[in-house]
Amino acid sequence: MENNVIANKSRTFAIRIINLYKYLCAEKHEYILSKQLLRAGTSIGANIKEAIQAQSRNDFISKMNISLKEASETEYWLDLLYETSYISEKEFKSIAADCNGINKILISIVKTSKNN
Q1: What CA–CA distances, in Å, run from 45 to 10, 61, 100?
Q2: What is the pLDDT along the chain (116 residues), one digit of tens a residue?
């Protein structure tokens, strides 16, 4: 697990999401969108962890697809938080870039896994 790039990136990202959630609740008093962000953003890594322990190739692909869907949903919540001024442009660009990077890796993993 420690040498697994996507697992490490998703864990680091989940920590950023948790910290953003805490900030949004404490400083901005935003609880609805931030809870959705927390759920989706931390689910990415949880599903990747499950994929690593998959029982079959199809199970692996399924879990990675779920991670990809959660990453896409996370992008949506981040965009809404930015567009409604709960997070600054600087905050948005930083965390959205991380999410986009995870998304690209997951797309590559899913495509490669389906083609092999």
Answers
A1: 5, 14, 14
A2: 568 999 999 999 999 999 999 999 999 999 999 999 999 999 999 999 999 999 999 999 999 999 999 999 999 999 999 999 999 999 999 999 999 999 999 999 999 999 97
3-state secondary structure of 1: coil
Angstrom distance (rounded) from CA 78 to CA 11: 17
Give the length of the chain. 116
DSSP readout, 56-95? SHHHHHHHHHHHHHHHHHHHHHHHHHHHTTSS-HHHHHHH
Asked if 37 and 81 count as a contact pair (C-beta separation under 8 A), the reply is yes
